[in-house]
Every structure is written in C-alpha cells, then in structure tokens.
C-alpha cells in the first residue's frame, strides 16, 4: 500500500508540471517524410514525460492539389472546428514545401495571427505572403529552411571555387528548386540551366540538350536512383573525360554506382555531427526514425520537437497572452487587422535545451534559418562499373554563402571540366601545317601558335580538325555555305581558325574578332624568269659555222702570206741586200705568218708587215676582214649579254589581262575566284544599265549625245579575264596550280596563278622557281571567326589586343616567315642595272689560265729540248755566235735563253779548249728555224 501511494503521488506531481498543448499540423500529401517524422515526435513526447509536454489535441490538415481556394476552405474548416470545440491550436506546424499550398497556409496564419513555424522552401523574399512582416509578426511567424533547400547552395560555392563558366543542373523530386532558378547563380558570369527531371527518358533528353548547348559542367541533385540513371546515360553518350566535369549532390547515405567504364566524379553527401550520431542511432532503433533521406527525417524530427518545446517554454514562463482570442475564418475582416503582441516564439525556440539529432539550427530570420549540417566532398573514381577509390577532398558547412574548406588547396585544380572548344581549320602553310607524330595527326604553324597564346590568356583547351572540304567558306546562289563557315553556322565548331579573310557576307552569319594579321590581297605567282648562263657564253655570240669559217680563213691567209713571201723576189728573205739598211727586218716563215695574222686581230697589232707588195695586199685584206669581224663580234656580244635581262613581259594584273601567251586562273572555289566572278558580273550589270540608257527612245537628241562618247563608258576587263580563266580551267588544289606554274616553259609563256598573297609569298619563300609579280589588290584583313553571338568574340578581342601590345604577333611573323626552317636561299636575280655577271664572262678568265698553263708547259719543253735533245758539239751546251774579223763568227757558251739570230749564213768556230785549232769553214746555209 505504501508503494502504491508513492506511485500515485508521483503521477499527480508529474501531471501538475505537464503543459497541455494543442497542435494544428498542416502538410502536403507528397511530403510523407514529414508526416512520419511528426508521428515519431508524438511518440517521443509520450515516452519522455520528463519533457513536460502533453499533446492533447492534434488537428491534421493534408493538402493536395493547387487550388488555393479549396486549400483555404479545408484549413479553415479544421481550424474553426478546433475553436468551436474549445481546443484552439497553440501553434501551427506547417510542413508544406512550396508554391500555392505553402502560400495558402501563410496567408491563413498571417491573417488570423496564429503562431506558426514553417519548414517551407524559399529564401528571404521568396515567401510572398510573409515578405512584409513587421517585427512583432516575425516573432511568431517563423520559417526554417529544410536541408533540401540549403544543399543546392553548394553549387554556388563550387562554381565560385572552380570559376566555372557554364553549368547544367538536373534535380529530382527530393529537391525543390523553383525558387532558385533566378537566385542560385545570380550575379555570376556562369551560363546555366536548371531543369527538373522525373524519369529516365527525361534525363536522357536533358543531358543531350545540355551537350547541344555546349554545357560541360554537370550538377545532378537527387536520390541515388536518379543519379545512377544520369551517370549511365553519360557513359553511353561518352560524356566523361577531361572536358566534362560531374558533380553529384545528394541527401542519401549510400555509395555511387553506375555502369561507367572510366569516370571521375565529385561526390557530395551529408554527414551528421560526430557528437549526434549516438542520439540519431537511438532514435532509429527506439523510435523507428528510419525514413530516408536520413538528414531530412532528422530535420523534421528536430523541427517538430523544438517547435513544440518552444511553446512549452512560453507556457511555463506565463508569456502566453491571457487574452489570446481566436478569430474564426468566417469572422475575419481584411480591414480589421489582428494584432498579436508579446508572443516571442523565436526567442523561446532559441532557448530550447533539447539536443539536436543531426545538426544544430541557425535561427536568425525567415529565409535565413536552417540546420548547420556538414556536406562531405569526395573524389570518386569508377572503373568498369566498380568504385575504385573515394578520396576525401574537403567539407562544406551549410549556409547561403558558405565557402568550401579543402584539405589541400590544389585538390580541385584539375577536377573541373577543362573548357574545350572545337576548332575548325584549313591546311595552309605556314598558318596551319599538318604533320604526324607517333601515328597521330598534329598541327603547327602561325595560327596554332596564335591560338596557343590566346589559350593562355583566356583559359581553355581545344580540339582541332580540318574542314571536310578544306575550304574557307563561300556562299552559293541559294545562300548555302561550305567550308569553315558552314561548320560554325551548323554549330559543329565554336572557332574557325586560319587565314580567313573578313568579308561582309560572312559577317552576316558569323562573328569576326579584331584582325590579327595585316591587310592581305590577291596577287600573281609566276615562274621565275631565268637567264641561261655559260662561262663560255662569249663564244656563243657567233654560230659554230662562223667560228669554223674564221678559223679556216685564219689558216688560209697565214699560209698564203707565207707562200707569197717565199716566192716573191721582193720579199726580205729573197732580197736581203735591198733591205739591209732597214731597221725592221722580218722573215715571214710559216710561224711568223701565223703569229702575224693572230696578233693583227688584237689592239696590239701584227707588227712589221711584209716587204713585198703581194704580201701587203694579203695583210691589208686580212686587216679589213679582222676589223669587220671584231666590230661585229663586239657589238653582238654586248647585245647578247643584256637582251635576256631586258625581257620583263608581266609586271601587273593589267599586263596579264592584255596578253594571250600566258594562261592564268585562281583556285576553284577560292576568294580570288569569287572576286573575279563578281567583278565580271558587275561589269555585265553596268553594261546592261548603260545599254538601256543609250537605247532609250524617250531620250532627246541632246541627252543621247551626252551618252555617245568615244571611250567606252563600261570596262570589260574583268569579263575578258573571267572568260580567259574559265578557258584555262581553274585548278582545284594549290598543288595542281603550283605544278602548272612549275611546268611553264618560261616566264613569258605558260601559266600564272592568282591567289592570296600569303600563299604566293610562302611559295616564293620555299621555292626558288617562283616569283611574285605585281601589287596586291582586293586587300582584306585576317581574323578568327566564332559563332554569331558567341561570348568568345569579346574574350578573343581582348586577348589579341594584348598580344598586339606585347608585340607577340610580330614575333610570330618573324618565326614563320623570316626564320622559317623551310626557307630557301635563292640566288639573287639579275637586275637591269647590274653588270654582266661572272657566270657569263668567266670563260675569259679560263682562257687566260689555259694560256698561262700552255705557256708554262711550253717553257718546260723548251728547256728540256735545248738542254738534253740538241746534238752535242763538244762544248756541252748552247752556243752563241759572235761576228769575227773576216766574216767569220765566234761561238761562245750561253744559257738556254741566250740564243740569238745574226743572219741566214753563219760560220762557226769552236772555242773548245781541247781543239783550239779547229779549222774554219763555211757551214753553208743553215735556216734560222734549225738553229
């Protein structure tokens, strides 16, 4: 009996301290998680009487649909019933999520001034019905954001950390993002799309749409089933790699799984506070708080429990108004605002001592009150559908502007998607040069270096490919484009890179950056004018037959002169007594005749002429012949050496148009072809206009006279040129055009190529056979092209201007033109002002060297002959003949070079010491040639 008495006494004491609370619980039908968490709270309060709360009446209102009037009628019906039953609610617990149901509840509670704590989604200003609450109302009309409303804020933190410029965000029903379409990435330079998905088909469609819009940074917010579908779709469409980045954000606890062959993913999931795990496990085991996601179930449990305990605190402190009057919905008047004072529910909510089960609440103001949970960031690598590693990278504490805390500052440097642009180009040296390295096609050149420099400034990567037809882009008569322009228009490429000329028609469909290259026009490529050179070109002045005739005349005249001198009685050798007093005595033997005829052809002269008249007539005839031959040879030599250098048939486009020996044409489909074709069409149109004017019968005689002019008013220059080009057949490739130029017979006959000056200048640079002729015309700048309206235009403009200021573009020109490794060192072409080159006159020096060489050989022969082959006379050496008294001659030893001729007859006397008494005698007549 004693124990029973004590038990009853304790029960009575507890009944005295329990606060009886009436609750109106308003929820949406789709929010089953809140419903079950509320039931757990009621059970928790019932099993924990020490909390001092007794929930006497609970009115549940479940909302479905979006009819605001029907929702308000349902709420008012339940509320009016509680008031009429004498059990009006102390607090309204609102777990509606968003949109019309949430706004309807807030309209109801604001109008009737009922203390309310709501877990609706939306930031400050998103709750339209509670947007203009005064200070008193903010004390009892309270909103606390659920985790699913705060978790998306990590997207902003990741974008800021990684400086992401584009983002595709998919979310499922576990998140509510309607309020974040405009606010999530506001005031950030990030192109983004936020889309709700609810099935696999929708996920596939939206990911494909993102890729078509060139979005490469994907954010998936949802449950693990939704995430698996998204990752499987990405694997099927090959959306993994360095140019894609995947960010998976969920409320679930499980591990990632997908049918991915090779994927690296940033996985973000919540993690309870370490000190609260024990309590959370107790609630799960003892009170069946097992609904997933765990973080949301725990939030609703804490939300309901702390809200009820806050009301209990108010009642305990007697802060609840004694005159709290409940107004029925039917009695409400809009012109009579219900004012509640001194109900500071927010203050009491902050002072609740009950521990939280997942994360503490930050309570400040509506739109900025939420649980401060922690999200863990992991780098997950999946290979062959298996998760191989999960590297912890950092954490993020829930907040509206909370930064990511990384374990390593460089942990995410290489994780975000590298911005990869598709670049279309055209192979053209030296701008874009294709080569192979390790079996892969690679590119180098001026434009490749340029895009690499821009890449450093703008920050992106690129994939380059050659346009299918390797054309820059021209428009046909139907307005359709080809080449690089078509690739941009069809969105297959973001950048067109190459020596692309800026043209008005192109600017109608694409955008150009500022020019990166000087104005470049069209010019002419021809085979270089070459002059045949020969060291013995001076011998080619006369034909071989002439040279043979001159040689024959030389020998015949020399022979004839020798015969006349030998047989003429008046010659020196036949009449020595007659000419004995002459100072010049010359016997014209055959050797002397040959020497005389040869030297007569030179300015030195032939020397003493023959004494006989017949010989002199032959000499005079030879002199006349020689004078004419030398004069003719000299005149023709000068003309022959200079006439080839004076031949310059083509110097301009007009010169090319006026001649018919050289065919000419541009590349088929090139800018040059378009230029000439359109110029011809313009001339044709102008002619039609002029013809219509001049043949107009309504003109007066005076007006018609003004149109009658001698000079044709409309030129047909380009019409004739275009016709000539079509007859010459336009080459389809640059190689074909170069072959036709190379195979030309000469610079005045063959084929001339009309093309971009850069192409022609480069061919002249690497090939000594070609030359650029004439000035450039139809000049246009080169620029990079991007899709129309692309933000790359402004970024590239800034980068190109920076490169221009740093003189980087000039250095690139130097590298690929002046310092090009393929540059050839060509021989300087002879200029008209230059003298005769050594290549044409060098044979004369060879003649000198040959003559000197022959002279040296002859000298050696002479020395050898006179020293070793002449018969010995006892003296052992050459003799010198001295005149003696009595007509004799004394012979003395002399050197080899000391021979002298003293006459036709000589008497020799030996001065040999062994035979001093050698008899004297007449040796007879010894010809001089035999001495």
UniProtKB/TrEMBL annotation:
> Pfam families under this entry?
Lig_chan, Lig_chan-Glu_bd
Q: Which residues cross the membrane?
A: 545-564, 620-643, 841-861
Membrane topology label: Multi-pass membrane protein
Which cysteines in this chain are paired by disulphide bridges? Answer: 76-329, 768-826
Q: Which residues form the Ionotropic glutamate receptor L-glutamate and glycine-binding domain?
A: 430-490
A Gene Ontology CC term for this entry? plasma membrane
Name of the protein in question: Ionotropic receptor 25a
Keywords, in A-Z order: Cell membrane, Disulfide bond, Glycoprotein, Ion channel, Ion transport, Ligand-gated ion channel, Membrane, Receptor, Signal, Transmembrane, Transmembrane helix, Transport
Ionotropic glutamate receptor C-terminal domain: which residues?
420-819
Q: Which Gene3D superfamilies match?
A: 1.10.287.70, 3.40.50.2300, Periplasmic binding protein-like II
Q: Which residues form the signal peptide?
A: 1-15
Q: Which InterPro entries match?
A: Glu/Gly-bd, Iono_Glu_rcpt_met, Ionotropic_Glu_rcpt, Iontro_rcpt_C
What SMART domains does UniProt report for this protein, alphabetically?
Answer: Lig_chan-Glu_bd (SM00918), PBPe (SM00079)
Organism in which the protein naturally occurs: Nezara viridula (Southern green stink bug)
Family membership: Belongs to the glutamate-gated ion channel (TC 1.A.10.1) family.
Cellular compartments annotated = Cell membrane
Q: Where is this site: Crucial to convey clamshell closure to channel opening?
A: 650
Q: Which GO terms describe its molecular function?
A: ligand-gated monoatomic ion channel activity; signaling receptor activity
- Residues bound to L-glutamate are 506, 756
Question: Where are the annotated segments for Disordered?
Answer: 910-931
Kindly report the protein's main subcellular placement as a broad class: membrane
């Amino acid at each position: 009996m004693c124990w029973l008495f004590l038990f009853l006494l304790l029960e009575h004491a507890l009944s005295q301290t329990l606060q009886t609370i009436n609750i109106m619980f308003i929820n949406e039908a789709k929010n089953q998680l809140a419903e079950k968490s509320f039931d757990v709270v009621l059970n928790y309060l019932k099993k924990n009487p020490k909390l001092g709360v007794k929930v006497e009446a609970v009115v549940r209102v479940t909302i479905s649909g979006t009819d605001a009037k029907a929702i308000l009628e349902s709420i008012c019906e339940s509320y009016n019933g509680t008031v009429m039953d004498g059990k009006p609610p102390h607090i309204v617990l609102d777990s509606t999520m968003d949109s019309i149901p949430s706004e309807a509840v807030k309209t109801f509670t604001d109008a009737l001034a009922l203390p309310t704590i709501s877990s609706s989604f939306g930031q400050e200003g998103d709750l339209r019905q509670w947007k203009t609450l005064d200070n008193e109302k903010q004390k009892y009309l309270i909103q606390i954001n659920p985790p699913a409303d705060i978790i998306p804020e990590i997207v902003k933190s990741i974008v800021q950390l990684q400086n992401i410029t584009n983002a595709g965000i998919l979310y499922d029903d576990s998140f509510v993002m309607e309020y974040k379409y405009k606010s999530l990435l506001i005031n950030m330079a990030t192109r983004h799309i936020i889309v709700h998905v609810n099935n696999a088909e929708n996920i596939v469609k939206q990911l494909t749409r993102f890729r078509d819009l060139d979005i490469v940074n994907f954010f998936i917010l949802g449950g693990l089933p939704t995430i698996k579908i998204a990752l499987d779709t990405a694997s099927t469409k090959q959306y993994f790699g360095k140019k894609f980045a995947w960010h998976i954000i969920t409320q679930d606890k499980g591990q990632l799984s997908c049918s991915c062959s090779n994927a690296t993913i940033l996985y973000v999931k919540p993690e309870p506070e370490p000190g609260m795990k024990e309590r959370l496990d107790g609630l799960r085991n003892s009170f069946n708080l097992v609904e997933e996601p765990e973080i949301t179930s725990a939030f609703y449990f804490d939300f309901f429990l702390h809200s009820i305990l806050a009301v209990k605190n108010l009642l305990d402190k007697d802060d609840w108004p004694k005159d709290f009057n409940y107004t029925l919905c039917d009695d409400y008047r809009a012109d009579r605002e219900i004012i509640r004072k001194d109900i500071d529910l927010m203050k009491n909510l902050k002072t609740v001592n009950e521990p939280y089960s997942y994360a503490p609440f930050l309570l400040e103001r509506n739109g900025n009150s939420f649980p401060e949970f922690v999200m863990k960031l992991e780098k997950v690598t999946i290979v062959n559908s298996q998760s191989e590693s999960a590297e912890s990278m950092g954490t993020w504490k829930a907040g509206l502007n909370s930064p990511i805390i990384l374990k390593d500052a460089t942990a995410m440097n290489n994780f975000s998607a590298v911005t990869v642009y598709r670049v279309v180009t055209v192979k053209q040296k030296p701008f874009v040069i294709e080569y192979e390295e390790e079996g892969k096609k690679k590119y180098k050149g001026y434009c490749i270096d340029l895009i690499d420099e821009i890449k450093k400034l703008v920050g992106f990567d690129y994939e380059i490919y050659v346009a299918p037809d390797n054309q820059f882009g021209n428009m046909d008569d139907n307005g359709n484009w080809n080449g690089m322009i078509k690739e941009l228009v069809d969105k297959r490429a973001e950048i067109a890179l190459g020596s692309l000329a800026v043209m008005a028609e192109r600017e109608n469909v694409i955008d150009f950056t500022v020019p990166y290259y000087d104005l470049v026009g069209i010019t002419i490529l021809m085979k270089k004018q070459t002059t045949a050179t020969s060291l013995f070109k001076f011998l080619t002045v006369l034909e071989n037959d002439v040279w043979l005739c001159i040689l024959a005349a030389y020998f015949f005249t020399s022979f004839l002169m020798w015969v006349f001198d030998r047989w003429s009685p008046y010659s020196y050798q036949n009449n020595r007594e007659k000419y004995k007093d002459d100072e010049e005595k010359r016997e014209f033997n055959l050797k002397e005749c040959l020497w005389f005829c040869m030297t007569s052809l030179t300015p030195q002269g032939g020397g003493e002429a023959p004494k006989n008249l017949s010989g002199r007539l032959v000499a005079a005839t030879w002199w006349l012949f020689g004078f004419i031959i030398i004069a003719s040879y000299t005149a023709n030599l000068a003309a022959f050496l200079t006439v080839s250098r004076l031949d310059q048939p083509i110097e301009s486009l007009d010169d090319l148009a006026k001649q018919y020996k050289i065919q000419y044409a541009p590349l088929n489909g090139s800018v040059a072809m378009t230029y000439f074709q359109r110029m011809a069409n313009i001339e044709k149109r102008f002619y039609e206009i002029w013809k219509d004017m001049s043949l107009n019968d309504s003109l007066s005689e005076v007006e018609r006279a003004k149109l009658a002019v001698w000079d044709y008013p409309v030129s047909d220059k380009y019409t004739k040129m275009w016709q000539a080009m079509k007859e010459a057949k336009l080459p389809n490739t640059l190689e074909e055009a170069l072959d036709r130029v190379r195979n030309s017979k000469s610079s005045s006959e063959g084929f001339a190529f009309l093309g971009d000056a850069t192409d022609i200048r480069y061919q002249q640079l690497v090939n000594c056979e070609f030359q650029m002729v004439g000035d450039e015309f139809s000049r246009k700048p080169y620029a990079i092209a991007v899709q129309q309206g692309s933000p790359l235009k402004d970024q590239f403009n800034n980068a190109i201007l920076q490169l221009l200021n740093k003189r980087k573009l000039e250095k690139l020109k130097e590298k690929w033109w002046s310092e090009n490794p393929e540059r050839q060192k060509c021989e300087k072409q002879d200029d008209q002002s230059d003298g005769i080159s050594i290549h044409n006159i060098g044979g004369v020096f060879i003649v000198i060297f040959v003559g000197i060489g022959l002279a040296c050989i002859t000298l050696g022969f002479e020395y050898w002959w006179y020293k070793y082959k002449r018969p010995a006379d006892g003296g052992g050496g050459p003799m010198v003949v001295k005149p003696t008294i009595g007509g004799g001659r004394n012979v003395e030893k002399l050197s080899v070079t000391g021979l002298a001729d003293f006459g036709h007859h000589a008497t020799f006397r030996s001065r040999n010491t062994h035979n001093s008494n050698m008899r004297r005698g007449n040796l007879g007549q010894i010809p001089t040639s035999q001495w």
